[in-house]
Design a protein that fits this description.
The complex is a heterotrimer of chains A (154), B (429) and C (481). Chain A has 2 domains: 62 residues; 79 residues, Glutaredoxin, CATH 3.40.30.10. Helices cover 45% and strands 12% of the residues of chain A. In chain B, helix 5 packs across helix 6. Classes of the chains: A alpha+beta (154), B alpha/beta (429), C alpha+beta (481).
C-alpha cells in the first residue's frame, strides 16, 4: 500500500482540507485495483496514513458490496439479477453460468480462474441482461455470448 | 421523438462527449454568461423555471437552493447525485456517458449561485464507463482552466471531485450519500437538520440529481421563460425516461412533460416485445406503484397527471410488464433487492425487509399461508413514514402497489402452491 | 422558552431541547432503546414515537428523540396511533430476538422485557425462522456478546466513539445481518471503560464474563458505595445477595458476603453515569485474603491483648510517628486526629500505586492517585511525603503499602491492616481491621467532593474498626474498642 501514497497525495489535492476521512473509499478502491483485494496490512497502512479509526475502515469494507478482504478468481463474472434483467433472461444466464463453470453464485472455480457472483441492479436495464467481467459491462447478453466470454477468459 | 428536447439535442458519436465537441456545441458559454449575473439572480432564474428534481421526489430545485442561504466566508458544498441505483433507472448514465461536460458546466453555474467552492459528483461504483467519462471531462476541465482556478476572469473558482461509491443502494439517498463521502458506512440521517443546513461534514450542502443539474445550463442559457414553454405549466421541461422490461425498443428517451403515455409506449418505444400485451407499467423506478394498461390509457407523462392516479414518475425508470408475467415472482425479486440493500440502521426497515423477503420466498416455495398477504400489507404499513430514509416507504409502496392490483395471483399461489401463470418473468416470443 | 403540552400537561422547555429531553426533564416517560442522555441521537430504534397535533385536527407521528420542541406544540405519548406504531415496532424488534429470558442474565432489568409487557404483550406473529447469528462471542476477555439478542441500537458503539474514545466497537455488514464487532486492532480490549457498554445495553446482548450466570439479578441488592480505586471516588452500587436469598448450602457461605458485581451509581458531581473497569473489578480487590487474627511479633494473640500491648507501646514512645492510610474514611481520619492530636508525627501514605499495565491517568475519570481519600487525609495531616525520622522509636502504620525497610530497625511497629500480608508478622503488634464494605463512611475526592459509602456485610469476628480502635489506643486508662 505504501507505494500508492504518492497517488493518494495527488488525489488529496482536489479535496477540501480536513477531508482525510473522505479518502477512505477512494484509497480502498485504489488498493483493491492494485492487489485484487484489501489485505490486513493495507488497512493498517491506510489507518496510519489517514489517521482514521481502524473500525471505520473495517465497517466500510464489510458494508459495501464491491470491496473485499479476500482474493477471488482472476475473472469476476457478476450477473445482474434485478427485475429488468430477470425479465430479460438473467435467471437463465445465471443457471447457464453455474452449469458451465461448475460453481454456485459466490463461489470460485477450482482453478481460480472464475468467480461467479449475482448482483443487484447495475443500471443497464435497457440493455438487459447484463454481466460484468471484472470492470467491463457486457450488455444484451445471450447464452452464446456468455459461452464465448468464458472461452475467451480461459 | 416524444416532444421537444433539451438534453439529448445532439448526435452521439465516439467523440461527442469530449470538451472539444462540447465547446463546438456552444459549451461553457452559458457559464460565462452566468458569471456576469449576480449569484442570487442565477438562483432566481432557476426558481422561476419551476424545474422539478429528477431524482424521484420531484422537489422544486429552486426551493431546495433557496433553503441554503449562501453566507459569505462560510463553507458550502454541492453534490451531484450520480448514484443511479433505483432498479429500472439508467438515464443519468446517459448524461454521464454522453454529456459529461453539460454536468460539469451546470455544476460550475450552480456552485457560483450557491457560493460553493468544492463540489462532488457521487457516482455509483459499478459505473465504469460513466466514471471514466465524467472523470475524463473533469480532468479536461481542469486542464482547460475551467476548474481549480478562477474562471473567465472572475473571482469564482471551483474544485470538483468525482467520488466513486462501492456498491450500496442507500447511497442514492441524499444523507446516505453524504455519509458515504465522509468515508463511512452510508447510514442515512434523521431530519432535522436538513442537509441544506447541516450536510457534508456538518456544512450546508445541496444535493441534486444529475439530470436536475444538467438542466441548469439550459435554463440559464435560454432563460426561465423560454424553459417554461417546454412541458406543462405544472411540470416544466422534459424528463429523461429510461424504459426497460418487455418493451420492443428499450433505452433512454427524452420526453416532454405532457406527452401521452400510451402513445409513448406504443409508438416511440415500438410497443411490447414479441407483440405481447401490456399488463402493467412500473412508472418511475420499482419504488413507485405499478399502473395497469387501463390506468395509464388517459394519462400523460406529467406529475399532475400521474400523481392523482396513485403513483408517480419517480426517477423516470419505467418498466413495461407483459401479460403472463407472474407478479408474485416479480415482487419476490423486488423484496430480495430491498432486503439486500437495507442498511440495517433503523428497526422497521432492518427487520421488515428481511421478514417480507422470507414471506415471499416461502410463498414461492409453495409454503405460503393465507395470512401472509395481510402480513405483507402490515409490514409495508409499519414501514410507511417510520424509517430514517425513504427506503422503508419505497419497499412498502412497491409491495402494496402490486398486492392491491394482483392480490388474486398471490391467493392463487398460496392456495395452489404454484404460479397462476408459469412463474416466468421473461416474455417469450 | 417554548411552552408545549405533553399529554395535557403544559410544560416549559428550554430552547433547542428535543421533546424527549423536555419530557424526561419534567418526569414524563417516553420509552426508548437507542436514546441515551450522554450519547448522540441516532434515532434508530423508533420506539420513542409520539403524536403531534396538526392544525387540521390530524396527528403526525414522529420520533421524540430527534424532534425539536416548538412553541404551542401539543404532544401525545399514548394516543391510539402512537400505541399502534409502538406495538408494530416491538414486533419488529422481537422478530429475530431469541426471547431466551430464562437463561439471560439481563432478565429482570431488561428494557426489552419490560417494554414487551408494557407495549406489546402478544406472541410473535411471524411463522418464519429467525435470523441466526453468533452467540457467546468473546468481544473481549471481559465481555461476551450474543448477537441474536442484540437490537442494534448502537449505544455500545457510540459509547466507544463519544465517551471512552477508543473507537473499539463497530457495526459490520448490513440489513438484518449487521453485527456488533470489536475493532481488529484490539482497541476495545484496551478500553479502560469497556464494561459500561454492559450497563447501557438495553437488552442481554452484552454481558460481563465475570458475572455471567452468577446470580439472577433479583437475588441481589445494591448498596451505595464509593470506588476506592483512585482519587476520583466514583460512586458505585455494590451488588450482593439479598438476605432472603442467602445461600444455605455448606461451603457457599462466602458467597453470601461477597460483592457479585459493581455498577455505576449515577452522580453528576463526580462520574456521571460511568465508571472504569477497575471499579468493576472491585470484587477482586475486596475479595483478597483477609487478616482476621491479631498478632504479637508474628504470634497469634487475642484482639484485646493486642490492643493493650499497642497502647502501652504508644504510651511509652518518646518519638512516635504515624503513617496514615489514604484509604481511611473521613470518620476514621477524624477519630485518629481526635485520639492522638499531635502526640504522633503523622504522614499520609499512598496505600496503592498504579499497577503495571493499569491506565495511570486520562481525561475522562481515571486519576493517577490510586487512593480514595488522599484529599481527606492530607487535609488533616498535611501532604508531606512519608519521611520517618531516624530517631523514631515507634511507628504506627495504618493500612497497606508501606515498605517496612524505611522503618528504623530499633523502632517498634504497631501495624493496622485488613489484608493477609507478609509485613503483618514483622510488626511488634498487628491488629486486623475492617474494610470499606463492613462499615459506613465518607471519602473526599481530589476535587473536594465528599461521597458516602454504606455497610454491606458484618465484619469478621476478631477484626477491629479503626474508628473505635484509635481512641482505645490513645486512652490512658485503656478500654476495649
Amino acid at each position: 500500500m505504501k507505494h500508492l501514497i504518492p497517488e493518494f497525495e495527488k488525489m488529496k489535492e482536489r479535496f477540501p482540507a480536513g477531508f482525510e476521512s473522505s479518502l477512505v473509499l477512494p484509497c480502498l478502491h485504489r488498493i483493491q485495483a492494485d492487489r485484487g483485494f484489501v489485505a490486513d496490512e493495507d488497512i493498517d497502512g491506510l489507518v496510519a496514513y489517514l489517521g482514521v479509526p481502524r473500525v471505520q475502515v473495517e465497517e466500510v469494507l464489510s458494508y459495501y458490496t464491491m470491496l473485499r478482504r479476500e482474493g477471488i478468481g482472476r475473472h469476476h463474472l457478476q450477473v445482474c439479477r434485478n427485475i429488468a434483467c430477470s425479465m430479460r433472461g438473467a435467471e437463465g444466464v445465471i443457471e447457464h453460468a453455474c452449469k458451465r463453470l461448475g460453481v454456485k453464485p459466490g463461489e470460485t472455480t477450482a482453478d481460480g480462474k472464475f468467480t461467479l457472483s449475482t448482483v443487484e441492479c447495475l443500471g443497464s436495464c435497457g440493455t438487459a441482461p447484463v454481466m460484468m467481467v471484472n470492470d467491463a459491462y457486457h450488455e444484451n447478453l445471450t447464452l452464446q455470448e456468455l459461452d464465448r466470454l468464458i472461452e475467451e477468459c480461459k | 421523438m416524444p416532444g421537444r428536447q433539451l438534453i439529448m439535442t445532439f448526435e452521439v458519436t465516439p467523440t461527442s462527449h469530449t470538451l472539444e465537441a462540447y465547446k463546438a456545441r456552444g459549451g461553457y458559454q452559458t457559464l460565462e454568461k452566468a458569471l456576469k449575473m449576480a449569484p442570487a439572480d442565477v438562483t432566481k432564474e432557476v426558481t422561476a423555471s419551476g424545474l422539478l428534481g429528477h431524482g424521484g421526489a420531484a422537489f422544486p430545485v429552486g426551493r431546495k437552493w433557496g433553503v441554503m442561504k449562501p453566507i459569505p466566508g462560510e463553507i458550502h458544498y454541492l453534490c451531484a447525485n450520480a448514484d443511479e441505483g433505483e432498479p429500472g433507472t439508467f438515464k443519468d448514465r446517459w448524461i454521464l456517458e454522453n454529456a459529461p461536460h453539460l454536468l460539469v458546466e451546470s455544476m460550475l453555474i450552480t456552485s457560483y449561485a450557491l457560493g460553493v467552492r468544492h463540489a462532488f459528483v457521487y457516482i455509483r461504483g459499478e459505473f465504469d464507463l460513466p466514471y471514466r467519462r465524467i472523470q475524463g471531462a473533469v480532468d479536461e476541465a481542469y486542464a482547460a482552466g475551467l476548474l481549480g482556478k478562477p474562471v473567465f476572469g472572475s473571482e469564482f473558482a471551483l474544485d470538483l471531485v468525482v467520488y466513486r461509491g462501492a456498491g450500496s443502494y442507500v447511497c442514492g439517498e441524499a444523507s446516505g450519500l453524504i455519509t458515504s463521502i465522509e468515508g463511512r458506512k452510508p447510514y442515512p440521517r434523521n431530519r432535522p437538520p436538513r442537509l441544506t443546513v447541516r450536510g457534508l461534514f456538518q456544512k450546508p450542502t445541496v444535493i441534486n440529481n444529475v439530470e436536475s443539474l444538467a438542466n441548469i445550463t439550459g435554463i440559464i442559457r435560454m432563460g426561465a421563460e423560454e424553459f417554461r414553454k417546454v412541458g406543462t405549466p405544472k411540470s416544466p421541461g422534459t424528463q429523461l425516461v429510461s424504459i426497460s422490461g418487455h418493451i420492443a425498443k428499450p433505452g433512454v428517451y427524452e420526453v416532454e412533460y405532457g406527452y401521452p403515455w400510451a402513445k409513448f409506449l406504443d409508438e416511440d418505444c415500438g410497443g411490447m416485445l414479441h407483440g405481447a400485451k401490456l399488463k402493467c407499467v412500473v412508472p418511475g423506478g420499482i419504488s413507485t406503484k405499478v399502473l395497469t394498461r387501463a390506468e395509464i390509457e388517459p394519462l400523460t407523462l406529467s406529475h399532475e397527471s400521474v400523481n392523482p392516479a396513485g403513483s408517480g414518475l419517480g426517477s423516470g425508470g419505467m418498466i413495461a410488464v407483459a401479460e403472463g408475467t407472474c407478479m408474485v415472482r416479480f415482487l419476490q425479486v423486488l423484496l430480495r433487492f430491498y432486503h439486500h440493500e437495507s442498511c440495517g440502521q433503523c428497526t422497521p426497515c432492518r427487520e421488515g425487509m428481511g421478514w417480507m423477503h422470507k414471506i415471499i420466498d416461502r410463498i414461492v416455495a409453495g409454503q405460503g399461508v393465507p395470512e401472509d398477504i395481510e402480513r405483507l400489507y402490515a409490514i409495508s404499513h409499519a414501514n410507511d413514514g417510520t424509517t430514517i430514509c425513504g427506503m422503508g416507504d419505497a419497499a412498502g409502496y412497491a409491495t402494496v402497489g402490486i398486492l392491491n392490483k394482483y392480490r388474486d395471483e398471490f391467493e392463487y399461489f398460496i392456495q395452489n402452491k404454484r404460479s397462476k401463470f408459469d412463474g416466468r418473468l421473461e416474455c417469450l416470443a | 422558552m417554548p411552552r408545549l403540552t405533553i399529554d395535557g400537561r403544559e410544560i416549559e422547555a428550554k430552547a433547542g431541547q428535543t421533546v424527549m429531553e423536555a419530557a424526561t426533564e419534567h418526569g414524563i416517560f417516553i420509552p426508548y432503546f437507542c436514546w441515551h442522555p450522554k450519547l448522540s441521537v441516532p434515532g434508530n430504534c423508533r420506539i420513542c414515537v409520539v403524536g403531534v397535533a396538526e392544525k387540521d385536527g390530524g396527528e403526525w407521528v414522529e420520533i421524540a428523540c430527534n424532534m425539536p420542541v416548538s412553541e404551542g406544540m401539543v404532544v401525545f405519548t399514548n394516543s391510539e396511533k402512537v400505541r399502534a406504531r409502538r406495538k408494530a415496532t416491538m414486533q419488529f424488534i422481537t422478530l429475530n430476538h431469541p426471547v431466551d429470558c430464562g437463561i439471560c442474565d439481563k432478565a429482570g432489568e431488561c428494557t426489552l422485557q419490560d417494554y414487551h409487557y408494557e407495549y406489546n404483550g402478544e406472541r410473535s406473529v411471524s411463522v418464519d425462522a429467525k435470523v441466526h447469528a453468533t452467540k457467546h462471542y468473546a468481544l473481549s476477555n471481559r465481555i461476551v456478546l450474543d448477537n441474536e439478542r442484540c437490537i442494534q441500537c448502537t449505544r455500545c458503539v457510540r459509547f466507544t466513539r463519544e465517551i471512552s474514545k477508543s473507537n473499539g466497537l463497530g457495526l459490520v455488514n448490513r440489513a438484518d445481518h449487521s453485527l456488533v464487532r470489536a475493532a481488529e486492532d484490539g482497541s476495545f480490549a484496551n478500553d479502560a471503560y469497556s464494561d459500561n457498554v454492559i450497563d447501557i445495553c438495553p437488552v442481554g446482548a452484552l454481558l460481563s464474563r465475570s458475572f455471567l450466570h452468577k446470580a439472577r439479578v433479583w437475588y441481589l441488592e445494591p448498596t451505595a458505595s464509593v470506588c476506592p480505586g483512585c482519587s476520583r471516588g466514583c460512586t458505585v452500587n455494590l451488588w450482593h445477595r439479598r438476605p432472603e436469598w442467602r445461600l444455605k448450602a455448606p461451603g457457599m457461605q462466602a458467597a453470601n458476603a461477597s460483592v457479585d458485581r459493581v455498577t455505576p451509581l449515577e452522580n453528576p458531581a463526580v462520574n456521571g453515569p460511568w465508571i472504569c473497569n477497575k471499579g468493576r473489578d472491585l470484587p477482586k480487590l475486596l475479595g483478597r485474603a483477609r487478616a482476621e487474627v491479631a498478632m504479637l511479633k508474628g504470634k497469634p494473640a487475642d484482639l484485646p491483648g493486642a490492643i493493650a500491648q499497642a497502647r502501652s507501646l504508644v504510651a511509652a514512645a518518646r518519638r512516635p510517628v504515624a503513617i496514615v492510610s489514604s484509604w481511611g474514611s473521613n470518620e476514621e481520619l477524624a477519630a485518629f486526629k481526635a485520639a492522638f492530636g499531635t502526640r504522633l508525627e503523622a504522614f499520609v501514605k499512598a496505600d496503592h500505586l498504579p499497577e503495571p499495565g493499569e491506565v495511570v491517568e486520562d481525561s475522562l475519570l481515571i486519576r493517577a492517585d490510586k487512593n480514595p481519600n488522599t484529599a481527606g487525609a492530607t487535609a488533616l495531616f498535611g501532604d508531606r511525603a512519608p519521611a520517618i525520622p531516624k530517631d523514631a522509636d515507634l511507628v504506627l502504620v495504618w493500612g497497606e503499602g508501606l515498605d517496612f525497610g524505611l522503618i528504623p530497625p530499633a523502632a517498634k511497629i504497631v501495624y493496622l491492616n485488613a489484608w493477609l500480608q507478609p509485613e503483618n508478622g514483622h510488626a511488634d503488634v498487628f491488629i486486623p481491621t475492617s474494610i470499606q464494605t463492613e462499615r459506613d463512611g465518607h471519602y473526599t475526592n481530589f476535587a473536594g467532593v465528599t461521597s458516602a459509602f454504606s455497610k454491606c456485610f458484618a465484619k469478621p469476628a476478631g477484626v477491629a474498626d479503626a474508628e473505635t480502635l484509635f481512641p482505645a489506643l490513645a486512652a490512658a486508662g485503656g478500654g476495649a474498642p
